[in-house]
Amino acid sequence: MTTSATPALEIINLHKNFGGLPATQNVSIKVQPGERRLIIGPNGAGKTTLFNQITGDFLPTSGTIKLFGQDVTKLKPHKRAHLGLSRTYQIITLFNRDTLAHNITLGLLGLQKARWNMLRPLATYGDMRTEAIRVLGLVNLEHLADRPVTDISYGEKRRVEIAMAMAQRPKVLLLDEPLAGLSAGERANIKELVASIPRETTVVMIEHDMDTALDLAETVTLLHYGKVIVDGERDAVIADEKTREVYLGH
Amino acid sequence: MTDVTDNTTIAAPPVERRNSGLRIALYAALGILLVALPLFSGDFYINLASQILIAAIFALSLNLLVGYGGLSSLGHASFLGLSAYFAAWFFTRGGLDHTSAALVALLGTTIVAGFFGLIALRASGLGFLMITLALSQVLWGVAFRWASVTNGDNGLSGMTRPMPFGIDLNGPAAFYWFSLVIFGISFVLMAIFTESAFGSALRGTRDQPRRMAALGFDVWLIRWITFVYAGFWGAVAGLLYVYYHKYIHPTSLSITASAEGLLSVIAGGSGTLGGPVVGSILVVMLKNYASAYVERWNMLLGIVFLVIVIFMPEGLVPGTKRLWKRFTGGAK
Which residue of A87, A121, A139 is in closest CB contact with B214? Predict the structure, then answer.
């Protein structure tokens, strides 16, 4: 790991309290460009809360968040998206009434000036449609492009969830439990997809399924009660006594 | 993950051409009927049609917020009433001509909508509804109490109809055609707005505001722009309203006026273009017919609304489409 380069994502002394409950306590994490980082921890460890602070959905009580060296701690979520940050949700968050192609197109539109165009119908942006179909192809769903989200299976929705974020060609991609609720076959599918994400994209992933997720990760951060317990190279974290205590339970 | 499946399915879906000839014929017939209406109806019905057109512009503008933005407002009459008061005051007391008074009304109301949006959009959902209600009640109170300017409960009278290009609008037919032209322009421009890239973003903020922000959309600004745009069309409806009645009273700013608009949108089908128009026909007809026979016409309106909500919770236009599809689908 080169330490001289500016980290893609840097979190310094982050604190978040919900009332009296500390959800994030003194968390500091550095993720280098291109890195594959896995964040693990038992339920309630504060993993998703950490994501929500990185994206700006929640403001931290104190501490700093930097994207490529730029302080984004107080920046609105949509502005962080324009700096190259994208995310997926643990609870599938799609536009159910619309087609898969429309869902992906919204992901493309979000970063383009055309999103302010009040005259031209979205349907006439042929280039965006072509790109949306291409992205759906990456997750093998191009044949369902014109079906509404309500028509597809849960596993397919998980893939659209990731495709929508990938369509934005993010510099930093946050994946919140991309394998949640999937069958073994579907999990292998998503694993292959995540492994195929180009190195220009830094990936930070929350996942419970250690068998699958560990193969994708280079570095691992273990959270427990909102604190970083262990942090470092994958094998070192797995071998660490504290990881066994907190997470693996033996 | 790279094996390409059936390439033929990638192409855009064929536009539904079935019945499209019939559809065009239907729209053409409807258009001719609308234009020709004064030739075969009495003054009462022509005036009723004008009122429907004005109510429909108002409901369509409210629908931008309610149906497409997911922002239910109980204060939209603010913009209709304010625009009507502006026009009437500046024409009868401010010494402006019709064109200037109309421009002041449209511009002034749109600016007020901008301020109201800043306040109301601090919240969404029920909070938004309550703030819009509160703001409209403030205007209503001002209209009632600031008698030296608004003439209070007596309302502002003495308004006349303008003469665009020298055409006298005092006859019912002339005013109807004038309203029809304004309605047509409003309908088309609002339709373009909802179909546009911005309109798609607006619908996105209705369905998944959090995701939209994460995708790079400024959810607040999208809502504010829509609020102001809806306020502008509310002002257009207000201008027609005061030209039609030649008079304006504080009740036009009341919660009842806002609620009638909301009722039209929901009864007809929110988030559709035809819905608010059909809803307006229903509300204005009930108001004019039923009030002749039943004193408590509001109760009748309530019952009709209840029946619609029970049998077609999505509104008359989408509900009828659904039943029609089931009917024709079952027949074949």
Answer: A87
- The Cα of A169 is separated from the nearest Cα of chain B by a number of Å equal to 11
Long-range contacts of A149-158 (CB under 8 A, 24+ apart): A149/A94, A149/A95, A149/A96, A149/A97, A149/A98, A149/A99, A149/A100, A149/A103, A150/A96, A150/A97, A152/A100, A154/A92, A154/A181, A154/A182, A155/A182, A155/A183, A155/A186, A155/A189, A157/A92, A157/A94, A158/A92, A158/A182, A158/A186, A158/A190
| pTM for the model | 0.91
CA dihedral A215→A219→A225→A226, nearest 10 degrees, is -130
Q: Say whether A89 and B211 touch across the interface (CB within 8 A).
A: yes
Burial of B170 (0-12, 13-18, 19+ CB in 10 A): exposed
Which chain A residue has its CA at the smallest distance from B199's CA?
A118
pLDDT band at B14 (very low <50, low <70, confident <90, very high): very low
User: pLDDT tier at B193 (50, 70, 90 boundaries)?
Assistant: very high
Nearest CA in chain A to B219: A78
CA torsion A138→A144→A149→A155, rounded to 10°? -60
> Residue A152 CB: number of other CB atoms within 10 A?
16
CB A106 to CB B5 under 8 A?
Answer: no
Put simply, the chain A residues between 159 and 198 with a CB less than 8 A from any chain B CB are 164, 168, 189, 192-193, 196
- Contact call for A192 and B1, based on CB within 8 A: yes
Q: Hey, which residues does A70 pair with through a beta bridge?
A: A67
Residues near A64 by Cβ (< 8 Å), separated by ≥ 6? A10, A11, A12, A13, A14, A71, A73
**Model pLDDT, residue A213:** 85
Separation between Cα atoms, residue A73 and residue A14, nearest integer Å = 10
Of A5, A9, A13, give the one whose Cα is nearest residue A64.
A13
Q: State residue A21's pLDDT score.
A: 87
Helical H segments across B4-124, by residue range:
20-40, 43-63, 77-92, 98-120
Tell me which residue in B196, B203, B204 faces A118 most closely, judged by beta carbons: B196
Q: How many CA atoms lie within 13 A of B316 on its CB side?
A: 22
Minimal Cα–Cα distance from A244 to chain B, Å?
35
Whether residue A113 lies within 8 A of chain B, CB to CB, comes out as no
Q: What is the pLDDT of residue A181?
A: 87
Nearest to A64 by CA among A12, A17, A7: A12
